[in-house]
């Protein structure tokens, strides 16, 4: 999985390789604070004819407020196959 600025602090996600291994054809990630992007992404996932995985980072304003602010405006959604980005778009 390629390294992207801002995501290193969040650690490596095992969901993407697992989803690709399970032949998911729609894999995406978003944050809960961007309502427009979240809504559109969930609509696309629901309309997708194959298996879809959407990972949603949720902010906890009590214990870890602002933890995912670094992700806004970064390329954090996409599908990677064979070591290259197949589809990606920015959040925010």
UniProtKB/TrEMBL annotation:
Q: What is this protein called?
A: Pyruvate/2-oxoacid:ferredoxin oxidoreductase beta subunit
**SUPFAM superfamilies (UniProt xref):** Thiamin diphosphate-binding fold (THDP-binding)
Cite the PANTHER family for this sequence.
2-OXOGLUTARATE OXIDOREDUCTASE SUBUNIT KORB, 2-OXOGLUTARATE OXIDOREDUCTASE SUBUNIT KORB-RELATED
Which GO-annotated molecular functions does the record name?
Answer: magnesium ion binding
Organism the protein comes from: Streptomyces zagrosensis
Keywords from the named record: Pyruvate
Superkingdom field: Bacteria
UniProt-listed Gene3D superfamilies: 3.40.50.970
């Amino acid at each position: 999985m390629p390294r992207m600025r801002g995501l290193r602090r969040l650690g490596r996600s095992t969901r993407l390789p697992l989803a690709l291994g399970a032949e998911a054809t729609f894999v995406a990630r978003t944050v809960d604070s961007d309502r427009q992007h979240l809504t559109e992404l969930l609509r696309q996932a629901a309309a997708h004819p194959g298996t879809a995985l959407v990972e949603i980072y949720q902010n906890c304003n009590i214990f870890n407020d602002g933890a995912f602010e670094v992700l806004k405006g970064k390329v954090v959604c996409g599908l990677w196959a064979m070591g290259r980005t197949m589809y990606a778009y920015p959040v925010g």
